[in-house]
Design brief:
Elements: H1 2-14, E1 20-22, H2 28-32, E2 37-38, E3 51-54, H3 62-76
Antiparallel strand pairs: 1-3, 2-3
Protein name: LysR substrate-binding domain-containing protein
Organism: Colwellia hornerae
Pfam family, one: LysR_substrate
């Protein structure tokens, strides 16, 4: 069930319906094809991480920028 949910979320992000927070290994194909790009340019130190991704053209979209800033703030607290 989890993989199906990840697939649906990845498809929604690829269709520019929003951004997604997903395990990298489950969206590697989309990343390789440049259908999704990391929304954060941060190093990953854990093998159990999530990646915030969005289509490249959405990186400067104000709601994406606002959400990214909010998520970083919450993660630091």
């Amino acid at each position: 069930m989890l993989f199906e949910q990840v697939s649906i979320i990845a498809k929604a992000a690829t269709a520019e319906l929003g951004i997604a927070l997903l395990p990298k290994f489950l969206i590697q194909s989309e990343l390789d094809k440049k259908e999704l790009v990391p929304a954060l340019d941060l190093p990953v130190t854990s093998s159990f991480g999530y990646y915030l991704v969005t289509p490249h053209e959405q990186l400067t979209y104000p709601p994406v920028v606002a959400f990214t800033k909010w998520l970083l703030k919450v993660a630091k607290d």
